[in-house]
């Protein structure tokens, strides 16, 4: 089928290639001309404005938005709701907060545009070859129109229509919350091994755990690859950046009054990693000194 | 090769079948006559005492102990060190605490017996078909003798000689610590979905997450199977039993002064699940009532 | 001085008594006529509408709002901003979310009304005798006018002008976050004692810890009182209700990317206490069964 | 009464002064001659060996051991059990692990020596003036003999005979576990304030919270003192040392299978504070990079 792709970052461009390889026709747009050129090189048709992109698509049109969550997605979707027509399809494949998607869905519904919030997992390699997609939106019937697209670009059994608008991004949010917990668990395990009285070869450990163990999975395979390049990860620091979905998952849990201690601990440990030192620690240290005369670590 | 198997529980018996299918000869012993009969039916030779088992093996003998960790393993290994001879091989494939294995290794070393502490992962299906083994012990040279055995019963690339005695069970302990964290993360994620404003089909969620997502792996596949049988898990309670290795991992972390908040939270949440109610909660509730007159939940 | 008190619940009524005992004149209003009658009995003048309350005060008026946070406080303050005049004083002594207070401050500022967000601690006994107040608002100069009021109703050194509008309720929010952590720590300690091999008398423990120990403080004194009434707290359940400020503190920490593991754990443990059982636990139990054949606790 | 004091560190010396001020006679011994001289200056009689100390006491003798927990306490108590006689009193006032105290109690019992494990709280100032003592040991009857001593050196109502041997140090262990949780909660709260949009004066905050708030107590007063000296604690780092009792409390909770998430989080956060960076963080960062191409923080 024919898809208009808006946003040609690393994920968007890989999706374009994936779509084309699977027999789709893509009209590609980005603010960055080089990215458009790359998409053209991959076989896409170029569009230099959203108007042009929409104009180059036959009705009913399908537009896939793959731009950063928040303001960029907001303004892109707003503009597209003005350009698209009733019966068209608008897919937000980015990492939008599900409450934003609820809003976007309403905006589209008002115009008769079919809106789908599509959480995308599988990383860059998944985008390129066999992605993973959880898609909420207008209706199961409307989703039938998009099935051939996902059937092609997804890993076998790797996509799901999740129900009402918002449910796709919500499920992707929770997916990432789980991911935070799993990654931290793996990291902690390797740290215990690192400080053990034994002398483990991290790459070999990750490799054997990737073959037949209970904790095998893609993350362990990625650990093997990472250790293959730098067995003690000497070249990087332990700063753990985060891009919002772990936080959203915890906030959602708080709103539900659901106890999620592992997701919370994983998220807070990321925040901790961004700090050289903490005021919490200073206060505790000062209190210990206050009652027990215990030594404090003085700044030079 | 020829192996003496001591302990024919669900793991031991599956290993016997796995070994025989891979061309090994097994002499099998258990306290339970029915289990011995099952092993015989699977092609093993029966032994009704440890003495008989040892007598039926040609030197250098290889004996695999697969009995519950703690006292049963202790006494079995003690007895075997008296029956085996210098140059023989003794494998503890159970879930022994690594400090016990250090002790067992010393006992064996004193007699010239090669000792290997073998952590076994992959569950019952792994034991039966393609197991996962992390094996510490006497020396890499001595391990060469056992390689053909593991090459057969393990998943391809699914075994590793981990180094000095104790390092195999230590690595298995940490494997389980990671497992605790990952399982709890997955559980929390499904609980957030369960309480969400959307209506997810848990089996479908676990299935799509098993195909191409970042969090794919065996645990997610097992979740799919569990939900396939009972989509809301209505038939079971949320009591999370534990068998020691998560606790050992945390205790080890404490001894190392390693911060492992996710493994700790996962373990403590298992303990919490075994309680109907907590004294902690009563105290907090009574304190809130004390200063603010807040309502308490009275026992009828 | 003369104060109009809006809201005569347990905290409001105690404050009225405290104010009167300290030589202030109070005009009291509540939706509930009985509460007004109680205030009258305590020496206050009654008002049956907000209009009447405002009319009975001399300019510059001081009105203290002590109604539930959220919608009730919102509508009360909205109505009062219409009734009060430039130069009047409006104090929100409730547990409002500080972002609501920022909004209220703006509304007041637009009318020239001095707004103060006053976090109130010390519980019911504090309200009655020697309260604790953290007060943000319009300006330090404007606060001078209110000082005599707080000097009287507060414990000595028990009030503070905290700065800009919002800072009073923000500080009260954090106070409660700390309180959550402290209470949970105390509860956990008593639970460990409860399950110890020893036979402690909880009341005696709390009493001795209240006299000279490092962890002495009001919460420990309240624990002593609670145990004096019911040494094993047999009459109450461990359900730990919460009224929002712990959650706000954690949400604020998340927005700041501050790692607050103890406040998070205390809050999540409250949520956990409200559940009989968890879906998390069911999933973990099902996964354990899936790979290891471990027993699950079946629902009858 | 007459007491032999073994160990004249900061706690021991303060106790000597406290005992003398309360009308007791003290024979003091330490490995360090200067410390003995200080004790003499405070009115104690000097002893330069344990033998001499014991010889200078009248039967039934009372010896208070105040040396570092572990090996020093072990060897001191072992030596004293040889020097003391049936009917004498031996008090371990240090921070011994309660299982060590159980052992010490047995050793003493075998000789007919009354043994008391005395947890000491209240810090250095408490040792000097009004300490806090939780004392397990031989029997309530035997404790009667020591009551006058504790009645003098303790804060009013600040000592308790807690029951069987071990119960004193056990209770002190739990006291410190609670202390860890409370201190971390206080630290986290001040960190949230520090990063807030407001400009709090930490000393003023701690002061007002010390006067009438729910979270008032000695720790908050110590916070006030610490901030009075250095309002932003600029001169110290946030390294939080620990001396064992928080760890013991958590280990005890694990053995009981008691869920103590706040005590665990507080302890692990101390360990985290001792590290510049973590291997956990490196692993998580490498995994994020692996699947998403997310930027890592490279070591220069």
> CATH superfamily membership of the largest domain in chain A, which one?
NAD(P)-binding Rossmann-like Domain
Can you name the CATH architecture of the largest domain in chain A?
Answer: 3-Layer(aba) Sandwich
| Number of structural domains of chain A | 2
Number of distinct beta strands of chain A = 8
What is the CATH topology assignment of the largest domain in chain A? Rossmann fold
Structural class of chain A: alpha/beta
Average pLDDT of chain A, to the nearest integer? Answer: 97
- Top-tier CATH class of the largest domain in chain A: Alpha Beta
* Main β sheet profile of chain A: 8 strands, mixed
Major interchain interface with per-chain residue totals: A-B, 76 and 76 residues
Radius of gyration of chain A: 23 Å
Protein name (chains A, B, C, D): Decarboxylating 6-phosphogluconate dehydrogenase
InterPro entries (chains A, B, C, D): 6-PGluconate_DH-like_C_sf (IPR008927), 6DGDH_YqeC (IPR004849), 6PGD_dom2 (IPR013328), 6PGDH_C (IPR006114), 6PGDH_NADP-bd (IPR006115), NAD(P)-bd_dom_sf (IPR036291), Pgluconate_DH (IPR006183)
Keywords (chains A, B, C, D): Gluconate utilization, Oxidoreductase
GO molecular function, one term (chains A, B, C, D): NADP binding
Question: How does this model look, in words?
Answer:
The structure is a homotetramer of 300-residue chains. Chain A has 300 residues and is of the alpha/beta class. Chain A folds into two domains: 2-164, NAD(P)-binding Rossmann-like Domain (Rossmann fold), CATH 3.40.50.720; 172-274, Orthogonal Bundle (N-(1-d-carboxylethyl)-l-norvaline Dehydrogenase, domain 2), CATH 1.10.1040. Chain A is 53% helix and 15% strand. Chain A is built from 14 helices and eight strands. Chain A has helices at residues 10-21, 33-41, 50-55, 71-83, 98-111, 123-128, 140-144, 147-153, 167-194, 202-209, 218-229, 245-256, 261-273, 279-292, and strands at 2-6, 25-29, 45-46, 62-65, 89-92, 114-121, 131-137, 154-163. Chain A has an eight-stranded mixed sheet, with helices on both faces. In chain A, helix 2 links the parallel strand 2 (25-29) and strand 3. In chain A, helix 9 (167-194) crosses helix 13 and helix 10 (202-209) runs antiparallel to helix 11. The longest helix of chain A is centred in the middle third of the chain and has 28 residues, at 167-194. Chain A is globular and about 75 Å long. In chain A, 61% of the residues are buried. The model of chain A has no long low-confidence stretch (mean pLDDT 97). Chains A and B meet through strand 7, strand 8, helix 9, helix 10 and helix 11 of A and strand 7, strand 8, helix 9, helix 10 and helix 11 of B.
């Amino acid at each position: 089928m024919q898809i208009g792709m808006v946003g040609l970052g690393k994920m968007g461009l890989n999706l374009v290639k994936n779509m084309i390889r699977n027999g789709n026709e893509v009209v590609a747009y980005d603010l960055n001309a080089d990215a458009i050129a790359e998409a053209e090189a991959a076989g896409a048709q170029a569009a230099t404005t959203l108007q042009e992109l929409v104009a180059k698509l036959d009705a009913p049109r399908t537009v896939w938005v793959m731009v950063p969550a928040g303001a960029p997605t907001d303004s892109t979707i707003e503009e597209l709701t003005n350009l698209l027509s009733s019966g068209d399809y608008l897919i937000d494949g980015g990492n939008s907060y599900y409450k934003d998607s609820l809003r976007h869905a309403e905006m589209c519904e008002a115009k008769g545009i079919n809106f789908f919030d599509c959480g995308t997992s599988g990383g860059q390699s998944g985008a390129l070859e066999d992605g993973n997609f959880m898609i909420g939106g207008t209706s199961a019937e409307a989703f039938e129109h998009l099935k051939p697209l996902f059937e092609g670009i997804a890993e076998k059994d790797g996509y799901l229509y999740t129900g009402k608008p918002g449910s796709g991004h919500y499920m992707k949010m929770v997916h990432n919350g789980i991911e935070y917990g799993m990654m931290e668990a793996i990291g902690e395990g390797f740290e215990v091994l690192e400080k053990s009285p034994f002398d483990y070869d991290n790459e070999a450990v990750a490799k054997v755990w990737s073959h037949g163990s209970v904790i095998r999975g893609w993350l362990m395979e990625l650990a093997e690859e990472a250790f293959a390049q730098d067995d003690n990860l000497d070249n990087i620091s332990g700063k753990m950046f985060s891009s919002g979905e772990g936080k959203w998952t915890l906030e959602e849990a708080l709103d539900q009054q659901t106890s999620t201690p592992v997701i919370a601990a994983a998220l807070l440990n990321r925040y901790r990693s961004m700090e050289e030192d903490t005021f919490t620690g200073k206060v505790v240290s000062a209190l210990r000194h206050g009652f027990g005369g215990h030594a404090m670590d003085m700044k030079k």
